[in-house]
Design a protein that fits this description.
homodimer; 16 helices; 456 residues; alpha/beta; 5-stranded mixed sheet
Chain lengths: 456, 456
Amino acid sequence: MKAEIICIGTELLLGQIVNSNAAWISQELASIGIDCHFQTVVGDNKDRIKESLEIALNRVNIIITTGGLGPTSDDLTTETLAEFFDEEMILDQEVLEKIEKLFLSRNLSMPETNQKQALRPKSAEILPNPSGTAPGIIWNVLELWHLKNNIPKSENELKLPPHGNPYKGEFQEHLKKEKLIMTFPGVPRELHEMWKEIAFPFLSTKLAGEKKLFFKEIKFYGIGESALAEKVQDLLDLTDPTVAPLAGNAECRLRIATKANNLQDAEIKLKEIENKIGERVGEFIYGYDSDSLESIVGNILKQKQKTLAVAESCTGGLISERLTNISGSSAYIKLNVVTYSNESKNQILNVKNESLEKYGAVSEQIALEMAQGVRDLAGSDYGLSITGIAGPGGGSIEKPIGTVFIAFVGDGFQEITKLNLGILNKNNSDKNRLDIKWKSSQEALNLVRKILLKIN
Amino acid sequence: MKAEIICIGTELLLGQIVNSNAAWISQELASIGIDCHFQTVVGDNKDRIKESLEIALNRVNIIITTGGLGPTSDDLTTETLAEFFDEEMILDQEVLEKIEKLFLSRNLSMPETNQKQALRPKSAEILPNPSGTAPGIIWNVLELWHLKNNIPKSENELKLPPHGNPYKGEFQEHLKKEKLIMTFPGVPRELHEMWKEIAFPFLSTKLAGEKKLFFKEIKFYGIGESALAEKVQDLLDLTDPTVAPLAGNAECRLRIATKANNLQDAEIKLKEIENKIGERVGEFIYGYDSDSLESIVGNILKQKQKTLAVAESCTGGLISERLTNISGSSAYIKLNVVTYSNESKNQILNVKNESLEKYGAVSEQIALEMAQGVRDLAGSDYGLSITGIAGPGGGSIEKPIGTVFIAFVGDGFQEITKLNLGILNKNNSDKNRLDIKWKSSQEALNLVRKILLKIN
């Protein structure tokens, strides 16, 4: 089964929205063994939507669209599909009632424009939207086509669609196989719910028996992309399983993928390659799949029943935010502080004023005093601190932008690291500020991870 | 000038990377008046890359590709383009020397595989990469074609390319106009630098004289997408300027766009529509274009020369992180704390133990004491606090997941808000946790913004 995702929306073509829907659907398709061959983005323009549909119908079996299901006049998906297949639109009373109820439950009356969302082509089915007003539609193109033509007696009688771009003979061949079009809203939350509650079980049932794609992602910290690729160069040429390097945000990833009938078969094949990778670059592996440095640090702390307190300067709360993104983090995080000013470092964390004067706020000594200070303040097992210059202002010759000190302290140990990140993104200093914050948080979390693993 | 972006990489089709490059390039194209009509994503597969190229050459003038320029065997872009045009590949000595130097500067010797990156089609030009090893190529298709065919005497003599998919007559018409293919690496930082240093000036010069697209984004908080669309329904039907609603993360946006010869002309047209929008829903506008709630709050604080301190519980540092993403925020942020546990709320912020026992940590009273406590602790002009239940654990019947209290205090005022966010994302409780954190941070920043504007 081959699929194409068509995301509809001029805002995507203007770059005002990053297309996270395409990535999300692609992952879902892969997880049930459907190969996504293309992702297409097209604007709110009927002709170009039709052009994209035609191309997709010529090369895949399943077309997933997102966007264009809203009540406004630039929401064109349903209308365009109906025109494309020359199909009559009818008002679905059931959908209309649902939309009206939804507005009522919010103590609002339904605006007239929302009536549009209850329209569907006569022979298509509704794909319910549990959480929003915009339902999607499942279009079984072959069925639609047969219905329209009173089911042709022979394949040769299939007529061409009426939108002016005659299909090639090739398309008629394709048409003999089932072709599905499924439309979803562009709002990620609604898309996700509709997918999980309706599309996922529907497609999974349809595909029972076909081989599924299984993959495992290995996550690395402390090795560059090229260096990693070189160490596993021969594996990148394999055809089953395949190994592919993926870009990461200040980390590296490798994906191992294989097609198999079931998880057990897949795991044997994946494990063999994973072991080979482990032998070569195992020291840089920090986790797998949905792991993040913060989730790994959290797991270790939870397992050891230890607590951590963080004092941040240049990262401004990012490390705290990442650690508390993990559910259950209240078990090991009790208190973190963001001491941006010298005064707060002194008053809250007991960093000595003499040290601040002598070494400056961005220094090994201050990092150490901050880590000790926050550990004392929180009464935690460990203290982590970070102080540095994220820019765009504040750099000097001795301490340029990107100079960062990290300290991690606990019973009987103290570990201090200096980073010279430099300017990671020279054309965009505000973006560079965020890059330095992120990279510093990665380094800090990795330092904690490594030491916690070492001290048992 | 019409453009299509073709992003090459199987990792995109597997959804392991979100396609931020397409959005970034689209914005850049729009800013110099090039209409991006399509974005296509295709895997590391020669046949499908050729198919995408052919479709794009049939419908646009400029094709921008990303990805597939690396040294590994699944980097196929240059090779596939050369095959597509039946063009000989040559080793560019200048590029090779640059790559070797880059490795030398890192005290490494160049791996053999990187030699591949110095290959280019004989008649194509190199698009230098200032920060990485992978240069791109500028392909003037028309010129390539003429060269290949010893410049035909008449247009009719243009021969078809040899890759098996004969072009339609339509394509020959297109070929008479200039067609550019520009290839970029997939690594965002390298792409951005190459674009800004080389592609941007190149394309801008080429396009001098053409009308450019100008747009302005208006950002709203406190009004839903449907309600906003309804208030400006008639404006959404305009053709020049156009008005389009954009999805936002717990906020709303409208884009007004127009084509004009220069900024002045554009501004007059945009302003007229902006005023109309302002008359209808002005109370919900918080900013424009790259503004965020944190940048607006920062601007107001800077202007008033006031300081803010934040005490967070459920948001875990997110508000602090957002505020400190703004460069220069050290002027108004001195100290923030994340008091996750009851003990830290009591010990650090002087929240009364009796209050914690009587009202529970998620309550109006505790929010108030936290805000007062952090204001006292930091000696700041204002204190902001937030306490709530982000889930997935911790909810109860009286205080379900999504219950959040926000307090904002200053000289002579205290403002407390209760949110009932409920479960925003019922199928994914970890994602829901992040949604609740984000939405709470939006509410808190907007509360601060509104009150700061009111108290002058």
